[in-house]
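# step 3/5: fold
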Amino acid sequence: MLNGLWLGFFVVAAIAGLSRWLLGDDPAVFAAMVESLFAMAKLSVEVMVLLFGTLTLWLGLLRIAEKAGLVDALARMLGPLFARLMPEVPRGHPALGLITMNFAANGLGLDNAATPIGLKAMRALQTLNPSSTTASNAQILFLVLNASSLTLLPVTIFMYRAQQGAPDPTLVFLPILLATSASTLVGLLSVALMQRLRLWDPVVLAYLVPGALALGAFMALLAGMSATALAALSSLAGNLTLFGIILLFLLMGALKKVPVYEEFIEGAKEGFDVAKSLLPYLVAMLCAIGVLRASGALEFGLDGIRWLVEAIGWDTRFVEALPTAMVKPFSGSAARAMLIETMQTQGVDSFPALIAATVQGSTETTFYVLAVYFGAVGIQRVRHAVGCALLAEFAGVVAAISVCYWFFG
């Protein structure tokens, strides 16, 4: 799947570039496409530098958590649920605890913690995979849920809006929460359909229903708070949780007589090795994305969508927010740039900017996640992972647009 997808990026870019040259009299497009190759190769190395530090830090801390028994405790707690969702993973396997920790970090918007934990979980799942190159059912479910971007506290989106002068940076909090819940639900249902998982099993419902009720109660509580209190809570909760996780790992390690410094060093060495293996996959994916952007293919797509929406007779205001949605599956930095550009050109509290912020907070860089997570364990045949992840991504975009029309339209 990734072979055809990667080749397709270059083919579409070539067609778009030829169209701009022959129909738009823009021969400079090819120079821009070639330049983007080198720029993306350079960006890949810059991303790797950041990943080296992040992975080294968090895999070092995870090593302490494993030795302290925290990962095993989480695995036992969620064993009955994962026995239904991931039947090929034995109860109590370390991967289950790591998956739980990854979901918790994503939910709190702790991206720096979520990625290394997720890579550690993917490597643990690979030890159970009978194939060295084909994704297992458990790996696909984990990746799709990871790519569905379930975020409870979108602190980074608040930061972007505050930087652009929004009087109420948290205005999009509830829309993001609703949209990201929709994308995660669709991701789970699509994988369950492909893998024939029984979500109506009493054990599964016993875990999911209380979670849904707790989420509803949390939303009701936050809805009654002032914007100032909500912003303060979001910032405090994110940073306090991040430092609290680190402190928990260290203190539990000390209580269990774990030599925390030595174990941190051993885990950090593993993080360095993991990061080093990712560079070829990052170069391949980011260079293909860069060529696609430089060719003007995204602009062609946007013009076509606007024409179609006008022909149907729908309101076209949301179309101005679609650049963020169109590039988000490929590149988080590109989507962030599109979001900021929309805020600057349309106004930070304009309808397109509010939609773009909601999309940014409720969707994930699907192809980046595919490249990094599967690349870390050498997976080449991803089966239905791409289709299910993109379906969740699409659901998140549609939900973001719909919720913004409900809240702000």
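# step 4/5: annotate
The chain has a mean pLDDT of 81.
# step 5/5: archive (pending)
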